[in-house]
Automatic annotation (TrEMBL):
Superkingdom of source: Bacteria
Annotated protein name in UniProt: Molybdopterin-dependent oxidoreductase
Organism expressing this protein natively: Actinomadura rugatobispora
InterPro entries assigned to the protein according to its UniProt record, in alphabetical order: OxRdtase_Mopterin-bd_dom (IPR000572), OxRdtase_Mopterin-bd_sf (IPR036374)
Signal sequence bounds: none
Pfam (any one): Oxidored_molyb
Gene3D superfamilies tied to this protein: Oxidoreductase, molybdopterin-binding domain
Domain Oxidoreductase molybdopterin-binding: 61-202
C-alpha cells in the first residue's frame, strides 16, 4: 500500500467511528513490520523491524545461492557463498538507521567490501553507477560508482555475529553504512555496472537517490 492510498484512506475517517477504527487497522497494516502482518516473518528481538515490498519471499538456501555481477565489467561472474568467503573479508560495526525513524545501534556486519568485489570482476572505464536487484523479483537500488567504492558498503554475509538470516535479507544482503536502510537491499541477487544511476524502487516513489543519514527525505512511510 503506497502513501497515496494511505492518505486516501485517512480522508475516509470523517465518516464515523466505525470507519475510523477500520482505517486505523488499514494504516497499521500498511506501515507495520511484515512480521506483524499474518506472521509471514517473525518479530525481531534486537530492535529490527522486517519489511518486504512483495510480502512473502521464498528462502534461498546458502548452498544454492549465487549473486551475479554483470554489465560494464571485464568479465561477468557468478559468486557462490564459497566464492564470497574466499575474497578479502571486512568487518565493521555501524548503526542501522531506517528512514521511518527507528535505529538499531552498533550492529556488527561482516562480508565482502563492495570495492573488493568490483575489483575481482574488473570495472569498465565507462561505468558510472551500480544497480542492485533482489531475488524477491521486485526491489532494486542503485549507488554511484564513487559511493559503491566506499569501504563501509558491504556485500554482507554476516550480521549480529551470525550468518544473515532470511528474515534479515539473507543469505546475502547489501549494507550501505552511511545511508538510510532502504538503500541496504535485502536478498541480494544481482549487481550490474551501468553508465548512469538507475533509480530504485523507493526513489521512483519520491525518495532521495542519495539517502545520506540525517538528510530529510520528505517522506515518512518507506520501509527498509
Amino acid at each position: 500500500m503506497g502513501r497515496r492510498v494511505v492518505l486516501g484512506m485517512l480522508g475516509l475517517g470523517v465518516a464515523g467511528v466505525a470507519v475510523g477504527a477500520s482505517l486505523q487497522k488499514g494504516v497499521n497494516r500498511a506501515l507495520a513490520p511484515i512480521g506483524q502482518i499474518g506472521g509471514v516473518l517473525p518479530a525481531a528481538g534486537n530492535g529490527f523491524r522486517f519489511y518486504s515490498v512483495v510480502g512473502s519471499v521464498r528462502p534461498r538456501p546458502p548452498a544454492q545461492y549465487r549473486v551475479t555481477v554483470t554489465g560494464l565489467v571485464r568479465g561477468e561472474r557468478s559468486f557462490s557463498m564459497a566464492d564470497l568467503a574466499a575474497l578479502p573479508q571486512t568487518r565493521l560495526t555501524r548503526d542501522f538507521q531506517c528512514v521511518t525513524g527507528w535505529r538499531v545501534p552498533e550492529v556488527m556486519w561482516a562480508g565482502v567490501a563492495l570495492p573488493d568485489l568490483l575489483d575481482a570482476v574488473g570495472v569498465s572505464p565507462r561505468a558510472r553507477a551500480v544497480r542492485f536487484t533482489s531475488f524477491d523479483g521486485v526491489y532494486t537500488e542503485s549507488l554511484t560508482l564513487d559511493q559503491a567504492r566506499r569501504r563501509d558498503v558491504l556485500v554482507a554475509t554476516e550480521m549480529l555475529g551470525a550468518p544473515v538470516t532470511h528474515d534479515h535479507g539473507g543469505p546475502v544482503r547489501l549494507f550501505v553504512g552511511p545511508m538510510y536502510g532502504y538503500k541496504s537491499l535485502k536478498w541480494l541477487g544481482g549487481i550490474e555496472l551501468t553508465d548512469r544511476v538507475v533509480t530504485g524502487y523507493w526513489e521512483r516513489r519520491g525518495y532521495d537517490v542519495d539517502a545520506w543519514v540525517g538528510r530529510s527525505n520528505g517522506r515518512d512511510d518507506a520501509p527498509t
